[in-house]
Amino acid sequence: MRAPFGLILAFAVLVACDLAGKLFVHELGLPVPGTVIGILILLTGLVVLRRVPANLQRVGEFLLAHLNLFYIPAGVGVMAYVALLADDLWPIVAALFASTFLAMLAAAFAFSWTAKLQGREGEGE
Known about the structure:
Layout (H helix, E strand, L loop, with lengths): L1 H27 L5 H16 L4 H12 L6 H9 L1 H6 L1 H29 L8
Helix pairs in contact: 1-2, 1-3
Main location: membrane
Membrane topology: Multi-pass membrane protein
Organism: Parvibaculum lavamentivorans (strain DS-1 / DSM 13023 / NCIMB 13966)
C-alpha cells in the first residue's frame, strides 16, 4: 500500500510544480510558458534536496518511456484541421525550412563565438 501512495505523491509533485509555474506566469504576466517555470521550480527543489527521490525518478522514467503517447492529441488536432493546413501548406513548409535554416545558422554562429571566447578556434581541424 505504501509504494503506490509514494508514486501518486511523486506524480502530484510534478503536477503541483506545473500548476505553480502556470499560476506564477499568469499572475505576473510573464511571456514564458508556465510549464518552463514549473520545471525550474522542480529543478530548484531537486537542487535543494541534492538528490532525486526514488519515487520521483520512477514516475519520471515511466513518463519518459511513454512520451510518444503525449503526441496523440497533437496528431488528432492536425487530422481535424487537415483541410485548413492543406490550404496553407506551402507557406507552412517555407516557414519550417526558413526557421530550421535560421536556427542552424544561429547555432553555428553561437558555436563559433563560444570557440573564439575560449581560444579554441581551429582546434578541430
